[in-house]
Each structure stands twice: as C-alpha cells, then as structure tokens.
C-alpha cells in the first residue's frame, strides 16, 4: 500500500521531471495500479468510487516502468547484467512482493518492445543463482512471442540468453 507521502513524492518527481503544466480545475493526479493517472473533473470523484476511462481517467505516466527502463539502460551502457533484486531496489519498486511486481513489469516491457520492434533490455535482469540467466518465465515468454523454441534451463537457454545479451551490448558499444 502506498502512503499519501509516497504518492506526493512520486507526483512531485513526475511533475518536475516532465515539466507538466497543471491546473487544479483540470483535475488531479492519482496513483493506481502502479501508474499515475490524471483524473478529471474533480466533481466526478467520490470517495471510494471507481473512475474509469469513460469518466475521465487519463494515463499520464507509468513511473515503475520508466524507472525499470532507466536502470536497465544504465546496466546496458556498462555491459553488465543486474539481479532481479538489485533491479527492484534501484527502480524503487514498492513492497511487498517486489520481485513478483518486477517480473510482471519486465514481461510487459518485453511484450511492448517486441510489438514495437524495439530491442528489449529485459534480458539483462537475471536471477542470483548460477547460471546468471533469467528465470523460466522469461523463456516461456520468449516462446510465446515466437523468439525461442528451446528449454527453460540448460545449455540451450544459456546460449539464447548470451546471444540476447551480446545483441544488447553491441547496441550500446561506443565507437
């Protein structure tokens, strides 16, 4: 559960970092489902009521995804991998179940990147164990996306992860 203080800090960061021009009569920002929403108009909002897109809820920014992508980009620039736990901590994923939340968001990122044809940095997030490769869910999703047809573990999985990692590193090589 996010406290009002945490919400205020997130909103302040988003407004400042994105230079959002905001007028109180337009509505207000709210945090729901780890996304920041612009909710309008104020008189549509009743305590505890659900507000959907038809009633004026507009997506402003997915802070969690933005932070995950920033950490992954920094990791790619250093030609490194990052454990799920460290990624969750650096991206400030709120608890409880930070790894669970992170892996769901990584899957969303992979699907988005795949559908847009972008190089996904999600393969840089790995488990702490040996070998340091993503968990089974990563390979299951690769199969679902038609990018892999091998097992979730073993030499073939390691080779596929190595190939994806090298593709990312080559995209972040400075000349």
List key phrases describing it.
2 domains, 175 residues, mainly alpha, two-stranded parallel ribbon, three-stranded antiparallel sheet, 6 helices, 5 strands
Task: Write the SSE topology.
Elements: H1 4-17, E1 28-32, E2 35-39, E3 57-61, H2 63-77, E4 82-83, H3 84-90, H4 98-116, E5 125-126, H5 136-144, H6 155-171
Parallel strand pairs: 4-5
Antiparallel strand pairs: 1-2, 2-3
Can you describe what's shown?
The protein is 46% helix and 11% strand. By secondary structure, the protein is mainly alpha-helical. The protein has two domains: 4-61, no CATH class; 64-171, no CATH class. A three-stranded antiparallel beta sheet has the order 1-2-3. Strand 1 and strand 2 (35-39) form a beta hairpin. The radius of gyration is 19 Å and the shape is globular. The relative contact order is 0.09.
How would the global form be characterised?
A: globular
What share of residues is helical? 40-55%
Count of distinct strands: 5
SSE series: HEEEHEHHEHH
Describe the largest sheet.
3 strands, antiparallel
Give the count of structural domains.
Answer: 2
Alpha-beta content class:
mainly alpha
Give the averaged pLDDT, no decimals.
Answer: 78
Cα separation of the termini: 45 Å
Q: From the alpha-carbon coordinates, what is the Rg to the nearest angstrom?
A: 19 Å
Helix tally equals 6
The largest beta-sheet arranges its strands as 1-2-3
Strand content: 5-15%
Stretches where pLDDT is under 50 for at least 5 consecutive residues are 19-26, 40-61
